[in-house]
Specification:
alpha+beta; two-stranded antiparallel sheet; 9 strands; 24% helix; binds iron/sulfur cluster; binds FE2/S2 (inorganic) cluster
Length: 220
């Protein structure tokens, strides 16, 4: 075990544990969207989980950092909050806010983070850059909503960790980045109806089971 100090509180943790996990397990909330506990190498792509660590000149993402003995961490400085609010604003610029009709309403990470950072979900003067999916070939059971997707990558991670041949991946670059489904090259039909891990993990309901499929699959 090692001892570290987070926001003035002395905390014990397993040597080498993940810093974000250590904070969350000790009821110290740090906004995060792209991290899952089982990730060995987190992508640190959402840029929300910044903290300040004594001895490191700039705030750093806690999901990509391990704890050490004597570490001193601050999760709530002005610098940290400024960076988190900018990252969150950037993320919202590509996210269509329609909470009332969204399946994630009231259990949504974005709503939670907005409350925590005391920042609006619809910031004034925020240019909207909603992505449009130009793909013609669609998935037989699943629907992808590109202008809701925050590119957290959790769906890609769970798909890759559960299937030898992953059924989805990131496609394109920069602002055009989005999720693309692929079909099983052997059977030609994706095993997604037996899995749905991506639907369950998506924090913003950007992957959904198609209504037509739910009706077809329901017992008569
Ligand atoms: S994902 Fe969250 S913030 Fe976005 S529309 Fe749905 S409930 Fe609202
Ligand atoms: S579809 Fe959902 S889980 Fe996948 S990258 Fe987009 S927001 Fe994340
Ligand atoms: S949770 Fe750390 S960068 Fe996304």
């Amino acid at each position: 075990m090692v001892k570290l100090v987070i926001d003035g509180r002395e905390i014990e943790a397993q040597e080498g544990s993940n810093l974000l996990r250590t904070c969350l397990e000790n009821d110290i909330y740090i906004p995060n969207l792209c991290w899952l506990g089982e990730m060995e190498k987190p992508s640190a792509s959402c840029r929300l989980c910044f903290v300040e660590v004594e001895g490191i000149p700039q705030p750093t993402t806690s999901c990509s950092m391990k704890v050490w003995d004597g570490m001193k961490v601050r999760t709530d400085t002005e610098w940290v909050r400024r960076l988190q609010r900018s990252a969150f604003r950037l993320l919202l610029s590509a996210h269509r806010i329609e909470c009332r009709t969204c399946p994630s309403n009231k259990k949504c990470d974005l709503q939670k983070i907005a409350r925590f950072l005391k920042t609006p979900l619809k910031p004034k003067r925020l240019e909207s850059l909603a992505r449009k999916d130009q793909e013609t070939e669609k998935h037989p059971f699943l629907e992808y909503v590109p202008d809701r997707c925050v590119l957290c990558g959790k769906c890609v991670f769970v798909c890759l960790s559960r299937h030898e041949v992953p059924m989805m991946a990131f496609a394109n670059r920069g602002f055009s980045t989005m999720i693309r489904f692929s079909h099983d090259p052997v059977s030609g039909s994706p095993p997604c109806d037996q899995c749905l891990a991506c639907v369950e993990i998506c924090p913003v309901s950007a992957i959904l089971v198609k209504e037509t499929f739910m009706i077809a699959a329901s017992p008569t």
